[in-house]
Amino acid sequence: MVAEIISVGTELLLGNIVNTNAQYLAGRLAELGFELYYQTVVGDNTAHLKGALDVAYTRAELVILTGGLGPTKDDLTKEMLAHYFGKALAFREDVFENVVKHVHAFGATQITENHRKQAMVPTDSLILQNDHGTAPGCVMEHEGKIAVLLPGPPREMKPMFEQCVERYLYQLVDRSIASVCIRLKTKDEAAADLVGEAPVAAKLDELLDGENPTVATYAQEQGVLVRVTASAPTREDALVMARIVAKNCIDRIGLDVVKEVTEQ
User: What pLDDT, in 10s, does the model give residues 130-151?
Assistant: First the structure.
């Protein structure tokens, strides 16, 4: 299944915060066996978010969105997605109780209409309880399209994904992805003609054209990285496939310039 990530928040576009959510989700989706080709960042704007969704669903069945689930007027992700999927919003008492509990835990005593807004959730949807904040998440499905809405703060998003979303996603895929990463020595540690990305790619030659496993090279400050990624019904099978090709890569590059080999 193909997935896509949309990160919602004007603060991301302005560079006020670093988008660590997308990095985390991309890694987890790859581990679960999803194909991921695009990530999008969109501001807190209804029209722009709808446009991003329209495009995303032309190339993916699953879209995971983070941010825009808070109590203020510019938090519009939930409302926008409910309208997009043709679902009404309804007040949920159990969700409201969780909101109130966390408002009090944060040291506030006054409950406002903004807090009640967070207890308005899409009907006919899977509501995800937030054990670390006031914004519930949810999963919506409609005509083959799936949207997973997660809160923006990483301390809320990550536990919700691991405790709720991951179990839901397991039923959508029938394969796993695993990688073997080969880190090469830097220029200070070996001859430059051995560890530059271009000569490394030349040594790997047709291995870079493989489809499963795939082989890719990356020029990084810590040294060239060669990543071998395989897909199989189980992670164990994928690792076996990746290890075989990774050994072939190491033999071609030369073990003397390999700094470390890790598995993901």
Answer: 989 888 999 999 999 999 999 9
